[in-house]
Design goal:
The chain contains six helices and ten strands. The chain has 207 residues and is an alpha/beta fold. The chain has one domain (2-206): NAD(P)-binding Rossmann-like Domain (Rossmann fold).
Amino acid sequence: MNILVFGATGSIGREVVRQALGQDHGVSAFVRDVAKLGIQHENLRLVSGDVMDPGSVENALPGHDAVLVSIGAGRNGTVRSAGTQNIIKAMEKLGIRRLICQSSLGVGDSRDNLNAFWKYFMFGLLLRPAYADHELQEDHVRQSDLDWTIVRPGAFTDGERTGHYRHGFAGTDKTTQLKISRADVADFMLKQLSDQSYLHMSPGLSY
């Protein structure tokens, strides 16, 4: 497939790009600074742009079969929701249907998956703006007319891609480790390109 990756220089996005190229996909990496990605491949195209600029988002989309979104601004808010909204509007305008969007475990009806530390300290205080941004981001995705899947991973680790992790567990499940490697998050996101089991769903992802 020809896929467009937003947030390609982030820790998840870079893994998505690397693994997608290994699976022989044609990959366009949408980045603000093309020098930051650090990956070269004959099937990789670098697209310079800002996700907050609707025009540059729309210009990047033609010719792609699917879009993967892994954007953010650390603890800050607005970029995830506003950027994703720009992506959705452009996809709807151009008729590109498949959207796979990375959010976070604990958002929406997965809140009860969290333990007290993550629920009240991390997302309740330290990461409160980012949490609110993810909630608004998910709202934009769910209200769209696209063929979307929202992926909700636990806390990121630097482990290898294992392909062995839990996904789609109940929103009340408290038995997961609340963590997963970035490589396995990318693995799961890319699997959604050929699997519609989670179409219009928001599966949690964790060990």
